[in-house]
C-alpha cells in the first residue's frame, strides 16, 4: 500500500497509525534537518502526544538549507509527510506510521521560504539536527567562528542567508520589527551544551549584523540544552524492502532500536508541548545526562567504528560480536571513560555501560561502521578528546584512548587491512588522509593537527602512547594492537 493520508485506513492491521485528524493540525515547530534521527525521535514524541489528544497546534514543518535536502522533501511530500517507523527488536519487528509533520518547505538558495515560515507568529519553536559539524565552531577553541566564509556571507547579506543560523537571525529580525515574541531555538544535535552553542552561533551572527537585534535575542529568546538518544541507522535498500514486507510502500522509512531518551532543559520563551507526558525528561540539569551519553555512547561508537572499518567489520553489532573489538570497547569504557563520568539520578555510569553494550550488540540493528565513523573530525574532538584531556589532567590511564586515536589515524589512510578502499568519510578527508599517510613514518604528524588536537599533541604521555600504538598497528596489524591492549 503506497503511503498517504488517503491510504492510512487501508494499511495492514498490525501497523499503528495516526488516530488524530491530521487535517486539523496547525504548525508550531519548524525543524531544520529532516534526517532519519529527527523522524524517529523528536517527531515521534510529538506524534505520541497527538495520539493522546494533545499538541494539535504544535505540528512540524520540515526544512533544509542544502540543495541535497530537496530529494528528501520530494519523497516526503509525495506521501503527505508521513513516515513509517520500524522498530528492530531481537524479539520481533513492529511498525508505526507517524503524522506529526505536515509540510516541508521549498529549498531555496537564499532561504526565503524558511525565513518567512520562521517569522510566522504561530511558530514558537525552531529545532535543528544539522550534525555536530554544522555549527561553525573553531575546531581548536570550540567557540563560534565569525570568520567562516558562510558566516561572513550571511553577515554581509542578511536578507539572503546561506546558513540555518543566518535564516534564523533574519526571521528573528522580522519578528522583532513586527512586535512578535521570538521563537525558542532548540538544538537536538550531539554537542555538550548544545543550547549554549546554538545561542552563541545565533547571537554571534546577529551581533555582526545588528547589535540591538543581538541584545533583543539574548534578552527575550531561549536556547534550551537537550540530550537525545536513539540508535537510528541510515535507510538502505533493505529498509525499503522491509517496509514492503510489512505492507507499506514508503519512499523514506526509518528503522530504529527499541530505546529512546530525550532530556530537555525546561527554558522556553514562547510555550512548548507537554513532552514529559510522552516520556521526555524535563530538568534543570541536562549537563550530567549529556556528558554520560556523549562520552560513553557517542565516544564508545568511535572506539568501535574505526577499528571496525580497518578490519572490514560491517556493523556496530558485528563489532560487538568480534572477539577482539568487543573486549577493547569494554576495557576502554570501564577503565578510561567511566571514571570521568558522573551518575545521573536513575543510573550509574557502570549501569549505563551495560545498557549501551546491549544496545550496540542488538543484531537487528544494522548500523554501519561507516555511518558511525563519518565526520570523525567532529566526533573525536567532541566525544573522545574531552575524556582524554580529563584523564591526562587526573593522571589516570589513557592507553586505550590513545589506541582509539591511532585507529582513527590508520582508518584515515583510506585503505582497510584487506586492501579495500575506504571512501572519503569526513569534511576534512583530504587533510586527514595526508596527515595519516605522513604519520605512518612520523606519528607526530597526526597529533600535530592543532585544529583537532590543540595542545593535546604536545602532551608527552599521549604523544608517546599514540606513536607506540600506531607503530604496532602498521607493523603487526590492528588485531595485534587490540589484543595487546586488552592483555595489559
Automatic annotation (TrEMBL):
InterPro entries: 6-PGluconate_DH-like_C_sf, 6PGD_dom2, Mannitol_DH, Mannitol_DH/Oxidoreductase, Mannitol_DH_C, Mannitol_DH_N, NAD(P)-bd_dom_sf. Keywords: Oxidoreductase. The keyword Metal-binding does not apply. Residues 285-466 form the Mannitol dehydrogenase C-terminal domain. GO terms for molecular function: oxidoreductase activity, acting on the CH-OH group of donors, NAD or NADP as acceptor. Residues 28-276 form the Mannitol dehydrogenase N-terminal domain. Pfam families: Mannitol_dh, Mannitol_dh_C. PANTHER family: MANNITOL DEHYDROGENASE 2-RELATED, MANNITOL DEHYDROGENASE DSF1-RELATED. This is Mannitol dehydrogenase.
Amino acid at each position: 500500500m503506497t503511503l498517504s493520508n488517503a491510504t492510512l485506513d487501508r494499511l495492514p492491521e498490525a501497523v499503528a497509525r495516526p488516530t488524530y485528524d491530521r487535517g486539523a493540525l496547525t504548525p508550531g515547530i519548524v525543524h531544520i534537518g529532516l534526517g532519519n534521527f529527527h523522524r524517529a525521535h523528536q517527531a515521534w514524541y510529538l506524534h505520541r502526544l497527538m495520539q493522546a489528544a494533545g499538541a494539535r497546534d504544535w505540528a512540524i514543518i520540515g526544512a533544509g538549507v542544502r540543495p541535497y535536502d530537496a530529494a528528501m522533501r520530494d519523497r516526503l511530500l509525495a506521501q503527505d509527510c508521513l513516515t513509517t517507523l520500524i522498530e528492530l527488536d531481537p524479539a520481533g519487528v513492529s511498525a508505526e506510521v507517524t503524522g506529526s509533520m505536515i509540510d516541508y518547505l521549498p529549498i531555496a538558495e537564499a532561504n526565503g521560504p524558511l525565513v518567512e515560515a520562521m517569522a510566522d507568529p504561530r511558530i514558537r519553536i525552531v529545532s535543528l539536527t544539522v550534525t555536530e559539524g554544522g555549527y561553525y565552531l573553531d575546531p581548536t577553541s570550540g567557540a563560534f567562528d565569525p570568520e567562516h566564509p558562510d558566516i561572513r556571507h550571511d553577515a554581509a547579506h542578511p536578507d539572503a542567508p546561506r546558513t540555518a543560523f543566518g535564516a534564523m537571525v533574519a526571521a528573528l529580525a522580522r519578528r522583532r520589527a513586527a512586535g512578535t515574541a521570538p521563537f525558542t531555538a532548540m538544538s537536538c544535535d550531539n554537542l555538550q551544551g548544545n543550547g549554549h552553542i546554538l545561542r552563541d552561533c545565533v547571537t554571534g551572527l546577529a551581533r555582526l549584523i545588528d547589535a540591538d537585534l543581538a541584545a533583543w535575542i539574548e534578552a527575550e529568546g531561549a536556547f534550551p540544552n537537550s540530550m537525545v538518544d536513539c540508535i537510528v541507522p541510515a535507510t538502505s535498500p533493505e529498509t525499503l524492502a522491509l517496509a514492503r514486507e510489512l505492507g507499506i510502500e514508503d519512499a523514506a522509512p526509518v528503522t530504529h532500536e527499541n530505546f529512546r531518551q530525550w532530556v530537555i532543559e525546561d527554558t522556553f520563551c514562547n510555550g512548548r508541548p507537554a513532552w514529559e507526558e510522552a516520556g521526555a525528561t524535563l530538568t534543570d540539569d541536562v549537563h550530567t545526562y549529556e556528558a554520560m551519553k556523549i562520552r560513553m555512547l557517542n565516544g564508545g561508537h568511535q572506539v568501535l567504528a574505526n577499528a571496525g572499518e580497518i578490519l572490514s567489520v560491517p556493523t556496530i553489532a558485528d563489532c560487538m560480536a568480534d572477539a577482539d573489538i568487543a573486549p577493547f570497547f569494554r576495557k576502554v569504557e570501564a577503565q578510561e571513560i567511566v571514571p570521568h563520568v558522573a551518575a545521573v539520578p536513575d543510573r550509574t555510569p557502570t549501569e549505563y555501560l551495560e545498557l549501551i553494550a546491549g544496545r550496540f550488540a542488538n543484531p537487528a540493528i544494522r548500523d554501519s561502521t561507516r555511518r558511525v565513523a563519518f565526520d570523525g573530525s567532529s566526533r573525536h574532538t567532541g566525544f573522545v578528546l574531552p575524556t582524554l584531556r580529563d584523564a591526562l589532567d587526573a593522571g589516570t590511564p589513557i592507553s586505550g584512548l590513545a589506541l582509539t586515536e591511532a585507529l582513527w589515524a590508520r582508518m584515515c589512510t583510506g585503505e582497510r587491512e584487506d586492501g579495500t578502499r575506504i571512501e572519503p568519510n569526513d569534511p576534512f578527508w583530504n587533510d586527514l588522509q595526508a596527515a595519516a599517510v605522513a604519520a605512518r613514518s612520523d606519528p607526530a604528524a597526526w597529533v600535530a593537527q592543532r585544529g583537532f588536537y590543540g595542545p593535546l599533541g604536545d602532551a608527552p604521555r599521549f604523544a608517546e602512547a599514540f606513536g607506540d600504538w600506531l607503530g604496532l598497528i602498521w607493523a603487526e596489524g590492528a588485531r595485534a594492537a587490540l589484543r595487546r591492549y586488552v592483555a595489559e
